[in-house]
Write a structure and sequence with these properties.
The protein is an all-alpha fold and about 425 residues long. About 75% of the residues lie in helices and about 0% in strands. The protein contains 18 helices and 2 strands. Helix 12 (about 250-280) packs antiparallel against helix 18 (about 405-425) and helix 14 packs antiparallel against helix 18 (about 405-425).
């Protein structure tokens, strides 16, 4: 039965999603391996459904580390007596590590298998979430916060790279469904962290307990995925060179810079939107709800934007519009009338979700084959997240220097304008070559 199931999956593995499907943004990072990795070994349709559930649940844990910390940032800063530089580092390091560890994921997968690497990443993520609130002798929370946050960033980087490929090759006949569920789970994880962390803090009276809570769902997924990962055969793979050298392509660099600029705004939403709202006088619970609403609207944008982008002859118009929506929504959330803050956050959410989705869709629309798409994806994640973390860094530094977030509002107007310019150039109907 196992052989029949996996043979059928392998036969359909070559099926590519339509560009209009949500799964069109799923890239297999292991496509340059020999032999090409086959689907995850399962023994029945029920086990295949169980695997799909596990992959979606992994996605549901990949953004809580960002949004949960920002939801109680004022409390953590005050009660743990964090210096200003530590706040900036804690909001910047995890995003930087997404870019640093992204190239390592295919290397580890070749040696241990993607499933085992995902299992290890979930173990590291769980350990990092448990470590973050620990108070070490001194007493001091800072060392554990730094180490736990860094561990979470490294683990999420591995999952970001390998999880889309598993979704794509294990469910070639359900790419639209699984791609949509995977995308929704990623956004939902950020919304859950933003919406529930502050109520957990008010119920317990301890920010440490509010942060520790998020280790529980990660540990549950770790246990659920354990039998799936351990029963996979160990097969040694070799790296092969194929596809275009994206590092020498002007189109690839335009798409990558577009990715950098959207990442600067995207992760700044997770790290700073709640503190921005609270500094403007919004209470913690309401700020969490506003951020959650913003992220829920990101889900809508991320689901519909790829299909809309693929219908155009080129993507110059949609790239420019969503970039300006995002920059404008972020700036208005900082210095627009507070009575309309839900409107500004909604504009930001729709713009940011659409912007992230169309930036990732460029991978498929600007490449002619899976090998080049994988190379472009690796370039975008490494450079995009690595340089994209400077957004959270600059917001923190501007706040420290000026004592307010007003300068950050100007920053996001500039970043949104630059994203519009590079999105226009990346949206031209050309291919990486």
């Amino acid at each position: 039965m196992r052989e029949a199931t996996n043979a059928g999956a392998r036969k359909q593995r070559t099926v590519e999603p339509a560009a209009s499907e949500p799964a069109g943004t799923l890239v297999d990072a292991e496509v340059d391996e020999s032999p090409v990795p086959g689907p995850t070994h399962v023994g029945s349709r029920r086990q295949l459904a169980y695997l799909g559930l596990c992959l979606v649940l992994i996605g549901l844990n990949l953004r809580t580390v960002f949004s949960s910390f920002s939801a109680v940032l004022p409390e953590v800063t005050a009660q743990a007596a964090l210096p200003g530089w530590a706040v900036v580092v804690l909001t910047t390091v995890p995003v930087t590590l997404l870019g640093v560890f992204a190239p390592l994921a295919p290397v580890l997968a070749r040696r241990f298998g993607a499933e085992r690497v995902l299992l290890g990443a979930m173990a590291v993520l769980t350990a990092g979430l448990l470590l973050r609130p620990v108070e070490l002798p001194g007493p001091s929370h800072l060392p554990a916060l730094l180490a736990g946050t860094a561990a979470c960033g490294a683990a999420i980087a591995l999952c970001n790279v390998l999880l889309p490929g598993l979704v794509k090759r294990d469910f070639p006949h359900r790419l639209g469904l699984m791609g949509g569920l995977y995308t929704t789970a990623i956004c939902a994880s950020a919304a859950l962290g933003a919406g529930f962390t502050y109520p957990l803090y008010t119920a317990s009276g301890e920010w440490t307990l509010a942060l520790w809570f998020w280790a529980a769902p990660a540990a549950v997924v770790l246990l659920l995925f354990l039998p799936v990962a351990l029963r996979q055969p160990r097969i040694q793979h070799q790296a092969v060179r194929d596809g275009v050298n994206v590092w020498r392509s002007a189109v690839a660099w335009q798409v990558t810079i577009f990715m950098v600029l959207q990442a600067m705004m995207s992760f700044s939403v997770f790290a700073w939107l709640a503190p921005i709202l609270r500094e403007r006088g919004v209470d913690g619970a309401t700020a969490g709800l506003i951020v959650s609403m913003c992220i829920v609207l990101q889900m809508l944008g991320s689901l519909f934007a790829p299909a809309l982008a693929a219908r155009f002859h080129d993507q110059r118009a949609i790239n420019t519009v969503v970039a300006l929506m995002t920059g404008g929504g972020f700036a208005l959330s900082i210095f627009g009338p507070l009575d309309l803050v839900w409107v500004w956050a909604g504009l930001l959410g729709l713009g940011q979700g659409s912007l992230t989705a169309v930036a990732l869709t460029m991978i498929m629309l600007r490449t002619r084959d899976g090998h080049t798409a994988a190379h472009l994806s690796g370039m975008m994640q490494g450079v995009g997240y690595g340089l994209g973390s400077t957004g959270t860094l600059m917001v923190g530094q501007l706040h420290q220097a000026t004592g307010s977030f007003t300068a950050a509002g100007v920053l996001f107007l500039v970043v949104g304008l630059l994203a519009g310019i590079f999105g226009y150039r990346a949206g031209r109907n050309r291919y990486v070559s």
